[in-house]
Design goal:
Layout (H helix, E strand, L loop, with lengths): L10 H6 L10 H11 L8 E12 L2 E8 L11 E8 L2 E8 L10 E6 L5 H7 L6 E4 L15 E6 L3 H13 L6 E7 L8 H10 L3 E7 H4 L4 H7 L7 E6 L1 H13 L6 E5 L15 E5 L4 E5 L5 H7 L17 E6 L2 E3 L5 E2 L4 E4 L3 E3 L3 E3 L2
């Protein structure tokens, strides 16, 4: 029976989709066959071959990667989502690109070993010749396009996107003042320390200020103000732990120039304290007919996982969009942006959203 208004496939199209032609007409089968011959022939995402592995510090390692030629290229400050398969499970994590764009398309990611971080530990074991899958570059954590004075503030591995910016600005022949404030434990923990000191020694516009917390302690508001002396609340980019990001944003708000700072935190926001049992709401998953409860102190991703569900996810800090899900009804608060979603059929991010009412999710 033909439904009115519905176009029937032509005979040739039907024949090409015939099961008798399987696997020749199966895109998934072709993808698996191509990857078995050469993983760089994959048409899914962007395969990238490891060119070199460099130890930056005792627990931090950089990988130079050569993506396939169709890689779209990136801007300094952006990140990629890396897919790996560990014990039969595909896992995704986002990593900042720590290199400026290069003429031959090579990119660098830099990973700090963290307790319990399986993906980072797995990637750190790769060697030259191995292949990773990358997403297209993502994110708008970019240096301003103008040539005004710029302040970069980073802590620990938060230096990675800032390093890319420094190299991009250096390659562009920047003459306006550029201040980089970096906070780390000690000299041995200073990622890219030698390269940054070299740049500072022969680039008059570049002012490098380093704070070793093992000696001077974690910078409080007074110490942070001292580190930023003379920057005059110019346009700023800050990347590091949430506490550092919050402290810098507070200084800029107090100066009435909150709009001049853009931040990226590699640790998620602190969830608000639960407001008693009334803050827990039922979440109905319309695809699987599962129901679980989510409180105001737990992200929807955490609550779903605690209930035995396995939603797709990546960075878990609201950047990579891997956990994006359609909310059929109800209200959620995005803890990363502070925005509330109360309209039906809106896309939300499970990892940074908390329930504000009973929900229906397309899970």
């Amino acid at each position: 029976m033909q439904i009115q208004g519905q176009t029937q496939p032509k005979p040739l199209a039907r024949w090409l989709r015939s099961r008798w032609l399987h696997p020749l007409n199966d895109a998934v089968a072709w993808e698996q066959m191509l990857c078995a011959i050469n993983p760089m022939w994959s048409r899914r995402d962007y395969p990238a071959r490891v060119l070199a592995v460099i130890d930056e510090t005792a627990d931090t390692r950089s990988l130079w990667l050569q993506p396939v030629a169709r890689w779209p290229g990136h801007r300094a400050g952006q990140h990629v989502v890396v897919e790996v398969e560990i014990d039969g499970r595909r896992l995704h994590r986002s990593f900042s690109l720590s290199s400026a764009p290069t003429a031959d398309g090579r990119v660098r990611i830099t990973l700090k070993r963290q307790p319990g971080a399986r993906v980072s530990a797995w990637i750190q074991q790769l060697r030259a010749g191995d292949v990773l899958r990358l997403s297209a570059p993502q994110g708008d954590f970019l240096a301003p396009a103008d040539d005004a004075p710029l302040l970069l503030i980073g802590a620990g591995s938060g230096i990675t996107p800032l390093m890319a910016m420094v190299e991009e600005l250096r390659a562009g022949g920047r003459h306006a003042p550029l201040v980089l404030v970096h906070i780390c434990r000690n000299e041995e923990d200073f990622i890219f320390g030698a390269r940054l000191r070299e740049l500072a020694s022969r680039w008059p516009a570049f002012d490098l200020r380093v704070h070793f917390s093992a000696v001077a302690g974690r910078p409080d508001a007074v110490a942070l103000t001292r580190l930023l002396a003379g920057t005059g609340h110019c346009e700023a980019r800050v990347c590091g732990p949430r506490a550092l990001v919050a402290a810098v944003e507070s200084l800029y708000r107090a100066a009435g120039v909150a709009g001049r700072v853009r931040s990226e935190s590699y640790r998620g926001r602190v969830l608000p304290a639960a407001d008693g049992a009334a803050s827990a709401h039922a979440v109905h998953c319309t695809n699987t007919e599962r129901v679980f409860t989510a409180g105001a102190d737990t992200s929807l991703l955490q609550a779903a996982e605690a209930a035995g569900l396995q939603p797709a996810h990546g960075c878990r800090i609201g950047i990579c969009m891997s956990c994006q899900c359609r909310k059929r009804s109800g209200s959620v608060l995005n803890l990363r942006t502070g925005e509330r979603s109360s309209e039906p059929d809106e896309l939300i991010q499970l990892c940074v959203s908390v329930a504000q009412s009973p929900l229906e999710l397309a899970l």
